[in-house]
Amino acid sequence: MISAAADDSGKTELIAASEDIPRGHKIALTDIKTGEDIVKYGCRIGTASDAIRAGEHVHVHNVKTALSEDGEYVYEPVVYPLPKLEPRTFMGYRRPKGKIGIRNELWIIPTVGCVNSIAEKLARDNQDLVKGSIDGLYAFTHPYGCSQMGDDHATTRKMLASLVRHPNAGGVLVLSLGCENLTEEQFKAELCEWNGDRVKFLTCQKSDDELADGRKLLEEIAAFASGALREEVDASELIVGMKCGGSDGLSGITANPVVGRFSDRLISLGGSTVLTEVPEMFGAESILFNRCRDTETFNAAVSMVENFKQYFVRHGQVVYENPSPGNKAGGITTLEDKSCGCVQKGGSAPVVDVLEYADPVKHKGLSLLSGPGNDMVSATDLTAAGAHMILFTTGRGTPFGAPAPTVKISTNTALYEKKGSWIDFNAGTVAEGSETPDEAGDRLLDYVLEVASGRRTQQEEAGYREISIFKDGVTL
Asked: Which CATH number fits domain 105-227: 3.10.450.50, 3.30.300.30, 3.40.50.150, 3.40.1400.10?
């Protein structure tokens, strides 16, 4: 096998592989001594644990992480130009107080896991309400809402309230049991205000027949939601979350840079994107920190990362044990390797804000959102932050979906062809040379606006929807 590499002058050099090297894995372009830096994306992704000769496979057997729990950061601001685009629009739903939805769905939100089965049965038995402008009826179950204390109790309450407020839901039924820690009164206090036509509450222990009463309330919110119709909306109103999972060695070369190009384009149109997965910023955080729009935002970003490192330390864990077995099989060697690819989803736009877990997006542009790397937890977090949809890049494939439409973007064409029932968009064209990242970014912008206008994702077609809430403390 022969590998082609270009030096800084653009001159191409052919390197002969001395062993079989799988797709997406790394080949040494020069001799590397033990202890020397391994450089990819122009950044250090680890150090050589053994001497490596040019042409050899570079992976977990001869590379180790250079990360530690300690970090010192200096703000060295950089600003990159954004592309200039003509205004774009999509067909969305205008909600009260200026909010925009891209779906008009009915959601059932349990406040406690004890009523999960009732929520699922209500969703299953009342699908006849999905008609006209109503796009779907879904229940979002979870195991929490009781036997929690302190921060975990507050986190569950905040997350569920954020989902109730989401503009993709034209109507919401909040389903309680009646004896849980998260009482209906607490939940209403967390919501602060709500439209009584859009949001209804049912406490099952107070009902003689919770299924009949649930049906009646669903009919009422369906009647309210059915009055919403799609209309033309400027692309500047769109909020898109960005996530990766089941990553491989091509994630940082194809799909993530393509999402980054999309992010820059949407932001240039006045829209907003959100990047989370804080542990997958470790080792590449300075790339984002130096793009913070001011010192205050920089300090908030540093605190977000340092707080997450301390979360690991409190639980007796090291910060660098992140790449999964699937990541490693796909060619990702260290957390730095994964992180340098991950942050490329953020493109080159300035970082305008840093959000706490489940906080709503407050400013147009690129926001960083505190949350873990776990796929379901972080996708739920992005939805709660107000993301109308989530772009999810993957090199190995995954079927799951968040409450918001979840667009799966493959890093390679083989996955796109094999898992067409999972994957919506192929970025493998970049690796094949048939598209540049910019061209694929233009194509992705077109696709996103189609999804915002009602085109269903593969995840939506399959009915794959779920939530997962972050938990840190004691369960009673």
From this structure: 3.40.1400.10
